[in-house]
């Protein structure tokens, strides 16, 4: 597992954006947990504490936002509500046209008592726009533009469309083993800071290889 890459470090503003690798959670169960981006940042920057403003699933890669001062959490969290977040993913099947999904996200409990995100009318409103960028008979490279930030939102909404992510194991009856992880990457994060920062994380090697295998080409403007 590779270490995160610092994409933007604005020490005056106290904002840090990293390129999160797969297999590393954004935050841990405690501040002493070294196996997360938060712990890595505290060690790398020699800080007693950093705060996550934007979290990604453990196996989702890409831009991940943190702040160095607690006073910035509320400000940046508010900005993230309207921030432009752009994800790239590879899903099963040919998605021929843009689709909008409005489906609330809640939680379910399994037989062991663990809770998992799920689509639920009793959940919180969630909206995602999906735009196909390249298609083959078996797969589609999609751009996902979520306007809300619910846990597993993009994954659940794609499953609802009948086009789950390649590598999706949790949100489908039969786990997909066609890729080591769900094929999702947060490529661009519009921070809404002074100067209009947009931070972009390049597509990781495993997703580039998946595109080649599925005969999909990444448009130049999408990378």
Query: Helix coverage percent of residues?
Result: 10-25%
Order of helices and strands: EEHEEHEEEEEEHEEH
State mean pLDDT (0 to 100 scale): 90
Give the class-level CATH name. Answer: Alpha Beta
Total number of helices: 4
Q: Give the N-terminus to C-terminus distance in angstroms.
A: 23 Å
Question: How would you portray this structure in words?
Answer:
It is a single chain. The chain contains 4 helices and 12 strands; from the N terminus they run E-E-H-E-E-H-E-E-E-E-E-E-H-E-E-H. It is α+β, with helices and mostly antiparallel strands and 223 residues long. The protein is globular, with a radius of gyration of 17 Å. The strands form 2 sheets. Strands 1, 2, 3, 4, 5, 6, 9, 10, 11 and 12 form a 10-stranded mixed β-sheet that branches. The two termini are 23 Å apart. The protein has one domain (5-216): Pseudouridine synthase. The mean pLDDT is 90.
What labels would you give this structure?
223 residues; alpha+beta; Pseudouridine synthase; two-stranded antiparallel sheet; 4 helices; 17% helix; globular
List the topology elements.
Elements: E1 5-10, E2 15-20, H1 37-45, E3 51-52, E4 61-67, H2 71-82, E5 85-92, E6 99-102, E7 105-109, E8 115-119, E9 127-135, E10 139-146, H3 153-161, E11 184-190, E12 198-200, H4 205-213
Parallel strand pairs: 4-11
Antiparallel strand pairs: 1-2, 2-4, 3-4, 5-10, 5-11, 6-9, 7-8, 9-10, 11-12
Short description:
By secondary structure, the chain is α+β, with helices and mostly antiparallel strands. The chain has a single domain (5-216), classed as 2-Layer Sandwich (Pseudouridine synthase), CATH 3.30.2350.10. The chain has helices at residues 37-45, 71-82, 153-161, 205-213; strands at residues 5-10, 15-20, 51-52, 61-67, 85-92, 99-102, 105-109, 115-119, 127-135, 139-146, 184-190, 198-200.
């Amino acid at each position: 597992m590779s270490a995160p890459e610092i994409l933007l470090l604005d020490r005056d503003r106290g904002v840090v954006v990293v390129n999160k690798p797969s297999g590393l959670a954004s935050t841990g169960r405690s501040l002493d947990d070294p196996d997360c981006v938060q712990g890595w940042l505290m060690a790398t920057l020699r800080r007693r504490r950093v705060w996550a403003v934007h979290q990604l699933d453990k196996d989702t890669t890409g831009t991940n936002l943190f702040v160095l001062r607690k006073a910035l959490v509320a400000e940046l969290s508010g900005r993230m509500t309207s921030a432009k977040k752009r994800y790239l993913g590879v899903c099963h099947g040919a998605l021929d046209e843009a689709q909008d999904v409005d489906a609330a996200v809640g939680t379910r409990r399994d037989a062991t008592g663990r809770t998992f995100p799920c689509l639920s009318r009793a959940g919180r409103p969630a909206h995602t726009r999906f735009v196909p960028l390249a298609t083959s008979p078996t797969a589609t490279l999609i751009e996902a533009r979520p306007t809300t930030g619910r846990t597993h939102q993009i994954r659940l909404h794609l499953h609802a469309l009948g086009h789950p992510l390649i590598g999706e194991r949790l949100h489908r009856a039969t786990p997909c083993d066609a890729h080591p992880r769900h094929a999702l990457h947060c490529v661009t994060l519009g921070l809404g800071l002074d100067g209009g920062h947009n931070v972009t994380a390049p597509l990781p090697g495993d997703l580039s290889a998946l595109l080649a295998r599925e005969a999909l080409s990444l448009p130049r403007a999408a990378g």
